[in-house]
């Protein structure tokens, strides 16, 4: 086990009657790393993380939290996990502070420590001014933010987020994504499920593509894209002599085509190839008016792997 | 234990916020007590119960009883007196419902009383209001007769100590009725108390299902606390609410209706045992359900069924033998039995039989419920 490995699970399995919701899932997350489980509705994301959080009995497989075996009766592991369920899990008749206090105390925080952490968490999720209001008076986005805040109270080294932005207004969504990125920056290991490809791309260091209860591929966005053989596309708007042959001569360039001042260049990694491409164009004496970079997204990876779209 | 208390405190706070605790523990019991008092005032205003008198003695004591005790009551509209010739006639009148109760005075009654020998005055009746009044009247008459006897003994040259040793000359004997009884109002109030208790405790354990529906159960399960602590908290919340509601209802009926419930110790133990039994039964029913709604429906059916069987609406004595036997399978029956046992001047301080029966109910049902609770404690 790596020194900073916070979560490792393998061969997780869960069936509901005849329906195998999770067939074989395994991955590991290090401190400070954000791991995304990307898959459509019904892929088995919630079932997987419910088993990891120890709220659902698993049919098979193993979970290690900070190197120790973890399961439904392991309070040691549960102290190290912050779990944010997909559905809002708050008591609407209680105030934000009362909700936070209850869960803080349930996680073993003393009175004084709870009070301090509650204030900190309220600030993180931007609800300091609404602490004494009943949750039922909150907007959807505010409830989502509080829902996230509850999972942060006990400073868990592992934070499990189940589609935390589902059905949230853009402003709250941004706030949530920023909080998550900040937590990862502080060293929290994050397990993040989503069916939004953009979120997975923006937030996650590594992504597991989940379909029908199995991880079909895993890696960084770039690795996944490379896996299916998709290339980045650089589009140049140029003025001047023909530049295509000199671009085709570059080792980074797989293909280049030109048409009426627009040049399309296919490369494996646009970020690394771009300076060479621009350099070659300048050397050839053309003026580059505009540059557009198009990187293939996980949508196409998912389509390639499963034969279906991520969202229907 | 800490987690259990935390969850209980949270649950109670929730119930205070959504006002359901207030409703269950205060409004419903007080409302019921108020309804009772109206109902019983209504009954009082209705036709007074008819009491038959079969005087097979014909002596002066019986005449005095009739003229000085019963006639004034009749004039006051409390009873209607119906003289009959035979014990058989009296019994038939009661059985046909033409009389609510009957006195049977055996031959030689007056002689026995005047000679200071024990004498028996029989009352025929059931658990209704008529029999209650008949007994109360006979008892106060018996006390009066004794006073007269005591005075005579002292005048005849006996000592005061000797006078107190004179046997109580008139023993009131009731036929076909229980030894100790609650009044109609008390019986009804007690019946409603135990009936509604089953609905009050319901919100304790079943809130596991509410939390599952609302998603918060997942959070409780993810917290570093044993699952049994959560189940226990839910059970105990129901117990607290049940004890509070029953205490309020019984105090209210004592204040508003003048109900007398017996020794506080025995009543307290009985109430706690009854609440535990009710919680256990309702918890067990909840473990059979899939959703909060289903649990609520099932629990209502069971609560009403047990209530009817247990004699909440119609006294068990008026149901047949088979029903009376079946009623022993309901906590309601034992609770009412316990209150009856604790009732009256010379009642014991505790009612061990019914209290233990209720505790047995509680132990068995709670035990099975806890064994089955695993299937409820999932997200
Ligand atoms: N408690 C359950 N009982 C029966 N089937 C379930 C249950 N929970 C999930 N499933 C099924 O398991 C599959 C995976 O569900 P889930 O893990 O919730 O997927 P996701 O979170 O990726 O949308 C789905 O087909 C779902 O219908
Ligand atoms: Mg899900």
UniProtKB/TrEMBL annotation, chain A:
Domain of life from the UniProt record: Bacteria
Molecular function GO terms recorded: ATP binding; ATP hydrolysis activity
Keyword presence, DNA-binding: no
ABC transporter domain segment(s): 7-237
Keywords carried by this UniProt record: ATP-binding, Nucleotide-binding, Transport
Pfam families the record matches: ABC_tran, DrrA1-3_C
InterPro entries: AAA+_ATPase, ABC_transporter-like_ATP-bd, ABC_transporter-like_CS, DrrA1/2-like_C, P-loop_NTPase
Signal peptide: none
Transport among keywords: yes
PANTHER family: LINEARMYCIN RESISTANCE ATP-BINDING PROTEIN LNRL
Protein known as: ABC-2 type transport system ATP-binding protein
Organism per entry: Nonomuraea wenchangensis
From TrEMBL, chain B:
Entry GO CC: plasma membrane
Major subcellular location class: membrane
Domain ABC-2 type transporter transmembrane: 20-370
TM helices/strands, residue ranges: 21-40, 188-209, 230-259, 265-289, 301-329, 349-371
Keyword Transmembrane helix among UniProt keywords: yes
Membrane topology of this protein: Multi-pass membrane protein
Alphabetic keyword roster: Cell membrane, Membrane, Transmembrane, Transmembrane helix
Pfam families cross-referenced by the UniProt entry: ABC2_membrane_3 (PF12698)
GO MF terms held by the record: ABC-type transporter activity
Location of the protein in the cell: Cell membrane
Source taxon at top rank: Bacteria
Record keyword Endoplasmic reticulum present: no
PANTHER family for this protein: MEMBRANE COMPONENT OF ABC TRANSPORTER YHHJ-RELATED, TRANSPORT PERMEASE PROTEIN
Descriptive protein name: ABC-2 type transport system permease protein
The organism of origin for this protein: Nonomuraea wenchangensis
């Amino acid at each position: 086990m790596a020194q900073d490995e916070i979560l490792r699970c393998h061969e997780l399995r869960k069936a509901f009657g005849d329906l195998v919701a999770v067939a074989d899932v395994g991955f590991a997350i290090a401190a400070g790393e954000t791991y995304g489980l990307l898959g459509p509705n019904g892929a088995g994301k919630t079932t997987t993380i419910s088993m990891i959080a120890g709220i659902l009995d698993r049919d098979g497989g193993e979970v290690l939290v900070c190197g120790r075996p973890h399961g439904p009766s392991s309070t040691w592991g549960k102290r190290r996990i912050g779990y944010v369920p997909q559905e809002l899990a708050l008591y609407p008749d209680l105030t934000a502070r009362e909700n936070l206090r209850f869960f803080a105390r349930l996680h073993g925080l003393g009175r004084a420590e709870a009070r301090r952490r509650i204030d900190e968490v309220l600030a993180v999720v931007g609800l300091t001014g609404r602490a004494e209001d009943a949750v039922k008076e909150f907007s959807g986005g505010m409830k989502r933010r509080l829902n996230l805040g509850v999972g942060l109270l006990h400073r868990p080294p592992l934070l499990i987020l189940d589609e935390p932005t589902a059905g949230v207004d853009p402003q709250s969504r941004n706030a949530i994504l920023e909080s998550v990125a900040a937590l990862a920056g502080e060293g929290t290991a994050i397990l993040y499920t989503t069916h939004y490809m953009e979120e997975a791309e923006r937030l996650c260091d590594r992504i597991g593509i989940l379909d029908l209860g199995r991880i079909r591929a895993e890696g960084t966005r770039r690795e996944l894209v490379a896996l299916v053989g998709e290339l980045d596309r650089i589009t140049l708007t140029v003025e001047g002599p023909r530049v295509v042959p000199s671009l085709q001569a570059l080792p980074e360039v797989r293909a280049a085509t030109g048409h009426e001042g627009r040049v399309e260049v296919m490369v494996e990694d646009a970020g690394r190839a771009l300076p060479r491409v621009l350099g070659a164009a300048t050397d050839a004496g053309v003026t580059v008016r505009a540059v557009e970079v198009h990187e293939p997204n996980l949508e196409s990876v998912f389509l390639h792997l499963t034969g279906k779209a991520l969202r229907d | 234990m800490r987690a259990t208390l935390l969850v209980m405190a949270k649950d109670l706070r929730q119930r205070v916020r959504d006002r359901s605790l207030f409703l269950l523990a205060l409004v419903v019991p007080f409302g019921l007590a108020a309804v009772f008092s109206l109902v019983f005032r209504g009954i009082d205003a209705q036709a007074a119960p008819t009491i038959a008198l079969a005087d097979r003695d014909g002596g002066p004591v019986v005449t005095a009883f009739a003229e000085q005790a019963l006639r004034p009551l009749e004039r006051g509209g409390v009873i209607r007196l119906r003289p009959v010739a035979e014990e058989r006639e009296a019994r038939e009148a009661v059985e046909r419902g033409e009389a609510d109760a009957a006195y049977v005075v055996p031959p030689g009654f007056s002689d026995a009383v005047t000679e200071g020998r024990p004498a028996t005055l029989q009352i025929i009746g059931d658990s209704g209001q008529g029999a209650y009044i008949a007994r109360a009247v006979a008892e106060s008459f018996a006390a009066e007769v004794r006073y007269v006897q005591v005075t005579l003994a002292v005048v005849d040259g006996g000592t005061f100590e000797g006078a107190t040793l004179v046997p109580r000359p008139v023993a009131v004997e009731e036929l076909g009725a229980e030894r100790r009884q609650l009044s109609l109002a008390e019986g009804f109030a007690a019946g409603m108390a135990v009936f509604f208790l089953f609905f009050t405790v319901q919100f304790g354990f079943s809130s596991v299902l509410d939390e599952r529906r609302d998603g918060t159960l997942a959070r409780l399960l993810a917290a570093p606390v044993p699952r049994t602590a959560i189940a226990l908290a839910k059970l105990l919340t129901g117990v607290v609410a049940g004890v509070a509601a029953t205490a309020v209802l019984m105090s209210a009926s004592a204040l508003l209706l003048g109900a007398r419930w017996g020794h506080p110790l025995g009543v307290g133990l009985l109430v706690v045992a009854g609440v535990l039994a009710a919680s256990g039964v309702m918890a067990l029913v909840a473990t059979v359900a899939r959703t909060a709604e289903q649990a609520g429906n099932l629990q209502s059916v069971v609560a009403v069924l047990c209530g009817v069987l247990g004699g909440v609406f119609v006294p068990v004595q008026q149901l047949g033998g088979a029903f009376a036997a079946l009623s022993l399978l309901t906590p309601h029956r034992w609770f009412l039995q316990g209150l009856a046992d604790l009732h009256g001047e010379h009642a014991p301080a505790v009612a061990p039989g019914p209290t233990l029966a209720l505790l047995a109910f509680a132990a068995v049902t709670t035990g099975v419920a806890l064994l089955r609770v695993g299937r409820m404690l999932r997200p």
